[in-house]
Design brief:
Blueprint: E1 3-8, E2 15-20, E3 23-29, H1 31-34, H2 44-53, E4 63-66, H3 70-84, H4 89-101, H5 106-113, E5 122-124, H6 127-136, E6 143-149, E7 156-164, E8 167-175, H7 180-190, H8 199-205, H9 214-221, E9 222-224, E10 230-232, H10 248-253, H11 267-295, E11 299-303, H12 310-319, E12 324-327, H13 334-348, H14 372-382, E13 387-388, H15 392-404, E14 409-412, E15 426-431, H16 437-445, E16 456-459, H17 463-466, E17 480-483, E18 519-525, H18 527-544, E19 548-553, H19 565-574, E20 579-582, E21 585-588, H20 600-605
Parallel strand pairs: 1-4, 4-5, 6-11, 11-12, 14-20, 16-18
Antiparallel strand pairs: 1-2, 2-3, 6-7, 7-8, 9-10, 13-21, 14-15, 15-19, 16-19, 17-18, 20-21
Helix pairs in contact: 6-13, 7-11, 9-11, 11-12, 15-18
The chain binds fe (ii) ion (FE2).
Length: 610
Amino acid sequence: MTRILGISAFYHDSAAALVVDGEIVAAAQEERFTRKKHDFNFPVNAIRYCLEEGRIQPEDLDLVGFYDKPFTKFERLLETYLAFAPAGFPSFLKAMPLWLKQKLYLPRLIRQGLDGRYRKRVVFTEHHESHAASAFFPSPYDEAAILTLDGVGEWATASFGHGRGNRITLTHEMHFPHSVGLLYSAFTYFTGFKVNSGEYKLMGLAPYGEPRWADAILEKMVDVKPDGSIRLDLSYFNYCQGLTMTSKKFERFFGGPPRKPESPVTQREMDIAASIQQVTEEIMLRAGRHVHERTGMKNLCLAGGVALNCVGNGRLLREGPFDSVWIQPAAGDAGGALGAALFIWYQLLGNERIAGKPDGQRASLLGPRFSEEQIRAFLDGKGAKYRHFDDEDALCEHVAGMIASEKVIGWLQGRMEFGPRALGNRSILGDARSRKMQSVMNLKIKFRESFRPFAPIVLAERMGEYFTLGGHQDSPYMLLVAPVAESKRMAVRDGNLRGLDKLKVVRSEVPAITHVDHSARLQTVDEHRHGRTYRLMKAFERQTGCPVMINTSFNVRGEPIVCSPEHAYRCFMATNMDVLVLERFVLLKDEQPNAEKHELDEYLAQFALD
Ligand SMILES: [Fe+2]
């Protein structure tokens, strides 16, 4: 038996993954345990969990992989500093202590992190190899083109090549400072959102705006080549030498300074969002076409932070040349831990690979699970009032009925998801048909910005009725955005509405999950992968005829998605959620004896705004 531990750490989204004889046994992000979003510290808790799940000790590991090469990365920082000296000195000084203390002593740190009980080899895979491995090896394809689009690792910011059997070959790379990920992050910064975190908000904001700057961006800031590679005019940016992402010239271009975080979002930010989103989609489409031409493959595997741009992914699937697309659900750096471990098993050790069906990612349900005994003991300890259902059908009928009457449900089942999206095991669920649900969920449950859209889960067998996904595939990881089918839309006249006023219009039979441009970021749910969540949706369908529900992550703004029943209970008690379902235990908020003791402000204050 060969046990390989993969680790990513020290940049953002630290994680660990355990691969045993090629099977992904466990994978989790450190933030879920420490409750610090995007936690980048050495993932001691995630490692401990992975070893527990595999029932092994550190000394039982055969190999440990780390997701990038710290020395090469250090070289890049030094060279960038020298090229921009002395302008880069402040950012150089800021980065150095962490490098000198931690990153350059990684092998020692890793051994320490494993209690000094691991004495075998530590393998450092390249950043883009790790992303590419995480995209291809768990995919359902025997062979496929691979495209990684990222911020930056060592030097590479994007790469492509192909995977065949048990090998990946990356043939082309694009290098720092020219980076689609950093370009998008620069706009994230400028519109007042947090870099490496708020990119999702910028994407969600885009449909409210007009892409009136897209052409100018292409003309002045970014030269997009026919092959999708880019050259940035660096005078607009500041990330090579300064502590901000954008320069004064960037500000002049958009007629003013960056939006202050948490100040009102204006039409300017919406138009900027629409513009950069259009530019990014253009880059993704050109890169996709080029990679298709060069590799001749009919399937595509995607990873790297930009592969979380599910609007771009959806267009690549519908308008691009590939028959199907598979995207690593943990497309950001957390997934690098998994990629490093899989790379070692297949590519370094040369083990045979048989592509998994429907894929090898196991629904990405790779995190901790909690037994009913554990949950009962916890709830009794809290003095919570609950009802336990022995019969799952009765549980699903009951919960479906509450969803249909516009109750908001916290839903924790089975193993936690790996990747930033809640896929039905750590979710807040609601009725997609409800006209008030979008605003109720944003403002009273999640305490986040009112413009942010909600995503649907849909029974896989009825997806085609509601959404025009394109290709011949499903969307089990919520990484593809597709238009709501014409037949489900309502005739609306909203040509004169601008900005957030667009939210007031009911656009479809499922208004709570239909974004202002009639798009939706969907997850298809099937019985094989999603078990009880599927059966809950079947019950909802029986009662209402509707195969669609809202599925949003179980957390409030700034909080990592809940992991344990305790995290779920705390979030439930502090917010306006109506019902909490932990496995087969059901709690109603208005029945809880100590509901008033849980202070919302105190709860929210634990989490820095994201
Ligand atoms: Fe990355």
